[in-house]
Amino acid sequence: MKKIALLLVVLMAVTSAAFAGGRRADDQLRIGLLMRNTNEQFLMDYATNVQALAGARGVAVNLQDALGDSGTQMDQLIMLLNQGYRYFVIIPTVPALADAMNQEIQMRGGAAAFSNTAPTTSSLRIGPHFFFASSPEFVGGQIQADLIANFFERHPERAPGQVVNMLLINGQIGHPAQVHRRAGLLAGLAARGFTLNIVAEGTANWAPDEANELMNAWIAAFSGQFNVVAAQNDGMALGAVQSMMMNGLVTADNSSGTFLTVPVLGIDATADALASMGRYELYATVLQDAIGQSTTAFDLMYQMATGAFSPGNAAGGITPATAAIDEEPANDPAILSQIYLVPFAPVDRASPIFLNF
């Protein structure tokens, strides 16, 4: 029995050494990629880019899809930690989950970079090796407002008296992107001198099918009462586009940039959205840079894992924030060195992003 016990101790020590620092016995660096789900185009693009970057640098990536469930995502983190993973790129299911996740990672001497769903300020305060690599959501809403304002300034007959009668399709209610994109949209239109009347507002939980059903109901109830549709991501915008086409809200004239009777706008600039713009369906979108966010998050973890990171380093071409904004966690000056803000960009028919698609 003493020999068996000694053997177990030796095996545990060897296993621990083999997995130290998130590396396997063959010394290959490993990174855990924890996704809240992978059924949204932005998230699929994000995960695909992390895997491509990892492959180019000889890094093994373990992708875990939480299917939108916080308990599942926490279990996936614990599993990977127990397997020796120490470095993580994370899109959490909800902001508050980041606190518990970072506590667990901290106890194992690891690091994490979060994107898309903002972690809490308190979760980043746990240690300087926790990061946020994402985009300022309020600005995304402001840019969407500018695209709407630009449309109506070119076509004032579509918004008499600069009155915008909007159907607003929100993402998951309470999600930081939903809250701040909405606030930025409203503030942006007001800043451009438009009066906003929200004819109807609801959530489609980021899902095209839900947006399609919502639009079907709104078209039946509010036909002729709205002059724009704003959706908080491209998937929902494309669901709205499909509904309008199926309900006959189309014209033969696409000189405004769309042959739909009113413009529909999204956020993300996914390939599907750009293709829809190419067919004169979706009017415009806002680039939320999945490549930029994922490259920055991956680079942070690669630098941490290889010992190359120093505070103030650029990652993925992005430098840390230098000024606080009114958006958690980037509103805390004490952790700005851990915040990497990837800019949004407008995408209409004149934008290089569309022209080069």
Oligomer: single chain
Tell me the series of helices and strands, N- to C-terminal. HEHEHEHEHEHEHEHEHEHEHEEH
Q: Which bin fits the share of residues in helices?
A: 40-55%
Q: What is the average per-residue confidence, as pLDDT, rounded to a whole number?
A: 93
CATH class of the largest domain: Alpha Beta
Taking the alpha carbons of the first and last residues, their distance comes to 68 Å
Radius of gyration from the alpha-carbon trace, in angstroms: 23 Å
| Largest sheet geometry | 6 strands, parallel
Strand order of the largest sheet: 2-1-3-4-5-11
Q: Strand-residue fraction?
A: 15-25%
Q: What is the count of β-strands?
A: 12
Structural class by sheet pairing and helices: alpha/beta
Number of discrete domains: 2
From the coordinates shown, what is the CATH architecture of the largest domain?
3-Layer(aba) Sandwich
Number of helices: 12
Shape, please?
elongated
Would you identify the CATH H-level superfamily of the largest domain? Response regulator
Catalogue the unreliable spans: 1-20
The CATH topology of the largest domain is Rossmann fold
